[in-house]
Structures are given as structure tokens and as C-alpha cells.
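Much of what follows relies on a compact textual record of a protein's fold. A record is reproduced here so that you can trace the correspondence yourselves:
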Amino acid sequence: MALYRRYRPETFAEVIGQSHVTEPLRHALANNRVNHAYLFSGPRGCGKTTSARILARTLNCEKAPVADPCGECQSCRDLARGGPGSIDVIEIDAASHGGVDDARDLRERAFFAPVNSRYKVYIIDEAHMVSSQGFNALLKLVEEPPPHLKFIFATTEPEKVIGTIRSRTHHYPFRLVPPKTLTTYLEELGRTEGVPLEPTALPLVVRAGGGSVRDTLSVLDQLIAGASDDGVTYDLAASLLGYTPDSLLDEVIDAFAAGDGGAVFAAVDKVVETGQDPRRFAEDLLQRLRDLVIVANVPDAIGMGLIDIPGDRAERVENQASRFGRADLTRAADVVSAGLTELRGATAPRLLLELMCARILLPGADATPDGVQARLDRIERRLSMVGDAPSAPSADERAPRPETAAPPAEQPPAPVVEPTPTPVAERAERVETSAAPVEQPAEQPPAPPVERAPRVDAPPADQAAAPTGTPGVADVRRLWPEILDKVRVIRRFTWVMLSQNAQVHSLEGTTLTIGLVNSGARDSFVRSGSDGILVQALADVLGGTWRVEAIVDPNAGASAASRPAPPPQRPSDPAPPAPDPADAAPPAAAPPPTPEPAPAPPTAPPPRERASADAIAAARASLRDDAARPEAYDPDRHVTADDPAMDNDGLSHEELLSRTLGAQVISEIPHD
């Protein structure tokens, strides 16, 4: 026997979600103030016919007038669940017996007295199917019935019952059962049946039932029949009922929050490729946006019970809502709601779904007040993320540290001038002059970078939890170019390493994990103190206290061949020095060295051009000639430990050339 028949209520106390109907009826029965005709209306499966049977059973109980049937007398046993029925309680399906002839036949038999009971009760189901002629034939009988006759009309469309009949009945409107009430009822039923019901699966069952108890029990009966030893699980309910998995909805919502169009359209492609209905996906997306809108406007919505989600999903929904503005969420819900109307009967549902997602991603294309407000929400959220975070550093903390601060532009360090410079010395001076405005002054020895100290009122960096409004990994990826710009200002070596060899891997709380291409790059990143530089850049751009961990990217081996080229030089970057024409070819005869003034620091040197093979060979020959002279190279005089151009972070010159310039050392010429 189906669940909805096995658990059909037998008393008004067992009817769920209809207390506004059952309580007045119980009082009327207990006070013996029963009308001769009733009209029960409401959606299907909400208890209209069941309540009509309970009313007939209570009227004919031997202990009447009572509020509930005793369940012991013969009439109560006959009309009980699974009983044989009573000859004095007649159920008529008006869908097949609604004509004028059926109404006349009922009118002729209604005057006969009941056989075994106090009343003869007619339950006319689907009363809206009775024709106008049939209602007119019953009108006089319903208006002035004999004392032993009672009428109960049940219908889903009370407006189709003619007004003359409605005016002679007591009308009781039934309603859909609230989700919370249904969820509690299903939990009790699962315990009675001995079937485990996963809490995350119950909302899907309730949603599929649509507030109808009969439809909900039919869905649960199907799931129980197909369940394994684990009972009814979320995966079983989602796959069998055709709902979008929570993981896919989380992926789409996170992509919308980050403005990641690639992830959004990849999710749409996944929906289509897995055979899911685009309209059902849009409905599930609208349901999730509805939850986010409520949480964004009512922070304690989950505790107040405004949305019905399991406890393990509550934190995830709150985190997603904090990454949107109220106007942004409302506009997205409006776009999806309008898209659902367009999807009805559409010949290209995938195209309409993709256009709907594109409209959500581009509030700038929406000239309505909602679109303008959505753009303002994004700007305000960005400003609060950068400047008004709960643990944002103070002005003193955000000031550049002495060991990484660049010298003022109006006071560039003067290059070192030697009395008798050689070509090699001149090249060293040019490197020093071009590098000095970017790095620290030569007078200040570099200090090893350290991580920023946490705030006094904040927990340690390794135990700090992400405050409300802390960006997620998608936000960090979106702001990664700005973070790299900050790193470039602080230290160019770290910027080169991050821009060419690293990518954002994951974010847990305030701990950012960076994936590097190989173990050598990771060791160099940690050993050179670049993690401290990145921590400072994160604090400058995002605010708060951060911690950086470096790992070897597990996908680096598969994508090494397709790794993008280094980022192009920006107009604000210091340009490399122009090649010296005197170095392009060996001189015919080495002229005697004569002192000359030091070159001024270049303001905007032209970009470096690729030398031809002949020019490279000529430059190598020039270097050999210069290195053959003892006075041509003096490392103690021209290159000191404080030279910012020699910031190699413990790397050998082969590793430094290979990493920074992509060069390969073919051979070396000893200085002696």
C-alpha cells in the first residue's frame, strides 16, 4: 500500500498544516452546531477529501457530539483506514458523475433515511466538474435538505462552483503545508518506517512535493523504494528528482561573485553535457539567489527560520551572500526570473541560459536603476574590501619599510665615477645607474625581509580566522594583477618570479597558497624572503593580516610547455639601458683610457633590441680583449656587496642568468 494511503489521517488531530480548518470544525462538532452543507477548497493533496471522511465519521460516531471519533463503535470501524466503508456515507466523483441526470438520481435517493447511522452523508469530490444544470438540479435539495442529510463538497477550483450553491455552504479553504511542517512530518515517518533519511535530502523531497502532503509522500515512497542500505541520501534525491547538485550551484555563484565568465559558461556547458534541463537549472539557481537575497537583508535569517537549509550549508550560504551587494543580488534574481519566462517553450534553451548568465555578469550594460545600483554595490564592496576591512593595517603599518623603500625621484643616487674607467667599468656603472632608481640606495645594506607583525588585538597569523568580508580565492585571483604591481614597486626580483613562475593555488582563511613551477623556484622564493614581500603586497591591496605558503604546482608538469611568456614591460617600468655601439664590435686598436664624466641617469631609454648573431660574436670578442688586461676588471672596486644589481638571493650566476634572462652558459673564461 502506498505511503499516502497507509498514513491517511483518521482524526482531525492527525491532519497536519490545516489547524485553521480543523480546530473550528472540532469545536463545531463538540458543540453540536453542525451545518447541513460544507465546501472544502484548496490545492490538491492538502487534505480536503480526508477531512470530509473524518467529518462524516465523527458525525456518525455513537458517542457524538464529540470533537474526534471514538474509533471503537461500528461506524468508526467501518470508516477507519482500511475499513469496508459505510452504506450511509456515499462518495461521488463529479468528474464522471456531474451531469444533470446524475444530480436527479442523487436527489431521488437522498430522501431515504440512513440504514445504520445517524446521518446520510454525500461527499462530492471534484465538485467544480458538476455542470451548471446539475448544480441547478441540486439547488433546492442543498438549500432545504431533510434532517438526516449532509453535503460535503470538495474542490480545487471553488470559483467554478455556482454562487447559489456556495452561498448555502460553510466554506473552509485549505492551504499548502509549510515546508517546516512537512520536514518534521517526514522525519517522524522515516523513523516509523525504519529508513534513514539524510537531512540534506529532505528539502529536495519537500520541494518536489510542492506543499502537497500526498505528492510529497509519493516522492518519498519512490525514493525509499530505490534506496540502498544507506537510506535516502542527497545524491539519490538530486539525481532521481533532477535537481542541480549543490556543488554546481556553488561553482556558479562563486564565479558570479568573482566576475569569472569562463567558470560561469563552463558550468552551463556542464549542465547541458550531463543532460540536465536548462529550465530546472535556472529554477535551482533562482532558488539559491532567493536564499542569498534573504541572508543579505536579514543576517540572522537562518536562525529565524526564514530559509530552510541544513546546518552544514548555512555557513557557505552566508559566505556567498557577503560577497555580493543587495542590489547586485536582487538584479541577478530579476534577470534569472525573467529568463525563466523566456525559457518556457524555447527552441534554443542553452542560448537563452548563456545570455541570461551574460546579463548577470555585465551590470554595466544595464542602464536601468537596478543596473546602476549593482555597479555602485560592486564599487562600495571593493572599497570596503581594500580600505575598511576589520583588520586593515594602520597608516604607519602601510608605509613602506626602509629596506624596501625606493629613493625619492627628485634625488637619484649619483653613479660612481672612476678616474680611468675601462669599457667593463663603464658597463658596470650603467647597470648601477639604471638599477638604482628601482632598488634601494647603495648606502643602505639590504636587510632580510620579514613578515608583517600581526595587530596587537588580532590572533597570531597562523591562527587568524578570515573576518567577515575577507575575499575568497576568486577575489584574490581577480586582484592578482594589482597585487603584482605592488610587489613590483617593493622588489623587482620577487615580481619577476611571481609573474613568470607562480600562480594562486588556494586560500584557506587568511593563508594564501602559491604554486610554483618546480621545487627550485619554490626554494628560491622562500629563501629569498619573497614570501614576506608578497605578504606586504597582500596587506596593501586587500588589507588584513596574511600568511603565504609556497608549494610546487601539481599541474606545472602538464602545462610547462604551454606556460605563457613573461608579461610585457609596462610604460611605468624602468627601461633597460640601450646597447652601446662601442660594444657591438671589437675596436681595431685599444685607445688609451681617458677619464670622462659619468653619464646622467637615463630618464626614458629606448627599448632593448635583439642583437644579430654577428653583433653577439663581436661583443664576446670585445669582452675577451677587455678581460685579458689586468686593469679591465676589479670586482672589489666596481661591484660591492651593497650593489642592488647583485641581489641574487644566494643564487649562483648560472642560476641567476637562467632564471632571470633564460640564458644558458656555454663556457667561461677565467679572469687570470
